[in-house]
Amino acid sequence: MRKFLTYVAFICTALYIIFQYCMPISITTLLNKDDKKAAEPVITSGVVQDNQFVPLDEEDMESCSSYENWLEIMDSTVYTLKDTVTINIKNYSDKTYDIEKLPYQISMKAEKRPGLGATNLKYTFDYDSNFKIIATAVNIDNYQYLNDAEKAAFDVLKAEAERINSQTDMEYNREVAIHNYITKNYRYSETGTEAERTHTIVGLIEDKSGVCQAYADAFEAMCRLCGLDVRGVNGQFNGASHGWNVVKIGGMWYHVDVTGDDPVPDNMLVQHYDFFNLNDKEIAKTHTLESKGVPECTATTYNYFIANNSVVHNSEELRALINRELANGRNTFTFKTEGYIINSANQIGSYVNGRGFSGYQVSGDLGKEGAFCVFLN
To answer: What is the CATH number of the domain that holds 294?
Structure first.
C-alpha cells in the first residue's frame, strides 16, 4: 500500500508540473501590465460551414406549400440559370410571395394564374453578366454558360478566394481578406471606354476600376466562393444611387460597403474600414436602404473597430492605441473616435514625434467623430 501511495503522489506531482509549466500560456499572461497594450486583439467568429449548393430535382420544383419551400425552389432556379419556372403555390398571397424581397439582383417577373386549391405562377428571369458570375460562385456547373471574358474574370476571383480559404477558416478573417483584396487592387472610376462596362465584374477585373455595382457584385461573388452568406442591396449614399452588401458573420448580419472604403482619390498607403460591418443604425447615418427583404442588422460585435479594439473615447485611449500599433510594428493603422473630437492632426503627431519617423499623414474628418487612418513615414 505504501508503494502504491508513493506512486500516486509521484504521478500527481508530475501532472502538476506539466500543467503549471509546460501547457501553453496566453499572451496576456506573459505580458506585464504596461505591455498588455501591445497585445493583438483576439478575434474569433464562426467557422465557415461547408454548405455546398445542391439544386432540387425537377419534380420537387413543381409545387410548394410554404414560403421556405418556395425560397428553395427559387434558389434552385436562379443558381442553375434557368430562364423560367412554373410553381403551384398553396395558400398563395402577394404579400408573402413577393419577388421584390428575393435576394437576387436580377430582372424578374411573375405571371399569376389562379387554379383549384393552389395558384399557378410562372416566373421569368433575365440574368446579367455579374449575376452569372455570382451564380457560378454558388454552383460551378454554371461555368459552361459564361463567355470567355466572364470565365477569365471568374478565374481571377476564384484563385484569390482559394488563397484566402487556404489561410483561414474563420468567417470574419475571410471577409476582411476579401474586402482588402478588392480595395487594394481596384479603384473607383466612372470613366471607361463604355459606361456600362464600369458596372461589370469583367470591367473591374480587366480595367482595374469600376463603380459601386462592380465592387459589390465582386464582393458577393468572392464571399460565395469563401462560403459566406451575403447579398447585394441598393439605395442612396449621400444622396446618390448606390449599391453595397449585407453579410452574415457569426450568425448575425452586417452592412459592408467596399466602395465606400475605397475613397477617391485612391490612397494605397492606408486601408479604410469606415463602412465595414455596420448595423442598421450606423449605416443610416450616410446610406438610405431601398431594397426590400433585407435581413435586420443589429449586431456590433464584428464591426471592424470594435472587433479590433480600435474605438477611442479620449486622449489617453488614443495614446494607448498608438503605442500598441507601434509595438506591433505597424506604421499604418486606423481607428474610430466616439465622444472624442480630434481637431488637429498634431494631436496624433504628438504621440509619434521622436520615435523614428520623419513625418505622418492623417486622413479623416478633423473636428468630427469618425474613422481616421494614420500613415507614418
So the answer is: 3.10.620
Residue 171 and residue 246 in one domain: yes
DSSP code for 170: B
DSSP 204-238: HHHHSEE-HHHHHHHHHHHHHHTT-EEEEEEEEET
109: three-class secondary structure by DSSP: strand
Taking alpha carbons only, the member of 204, 202, 220, 212 closest to residue 103 is 220
Instruction: Give me 6's grid cell.
Output: 508513493
pLDDT tens, position by position, 271-294: 899 999 999 999 999 999 999 999
Q: Are residues 159 and 220 in the same domain?
A: yes
Rounded to whole angstroms, the Cα distance separating 232 from 61 reads 25
Residue 255 DSSP SS3: strand
Confidence (pLDDT) at 37: 38
Domain span at 323: 310-376
State how many domains the chain has: 3
**84 and 99 co-located in one domain:** yes
pLDDT tens digits, one per residue of 105-116: 999 999 998 766
Summarised one tens digit per residue, pLDDT across range 324-335 is 999 999 999 999
Identify whether residues 161 and 104 lie together within a single domain: no
Rounded CA gap, 259 and 187, in Å?
Answer: 9
Q: Is residue 41 part of a domain?
A: no
Q: Which of 15-19, 29-33, 119-123, 261-265 has the lowest mean pLDDT?
A: 29-33
Over pLDDT 90: what percentage of the chain?
77
- Count of positions (residues) in the chain: 377
- Helix then strand count (H, E) for the chain reads 12, 15
Nearest to 60 by CA among 80, 87, 24, 41: 87
CB atoms inside a 10 Å sphere around CB 308:
18
Tens-digit pLDDT profile for residues 223-252: 999 999 999 999 999 899 999 999 999 999
Alpha-carbon torsion angle 147, 153, 155, 158, nearest 10: -130
Cβ neighbors of 322 (< 8 A, separation 6 or more) are 333, 348, 351, 352, 374
CATH number assigned to the domain comprising residue 91 = 3.30.110
Grid cell locating 115: 387554379
For residue 150, give the 3-state DSSP assignment.
helix
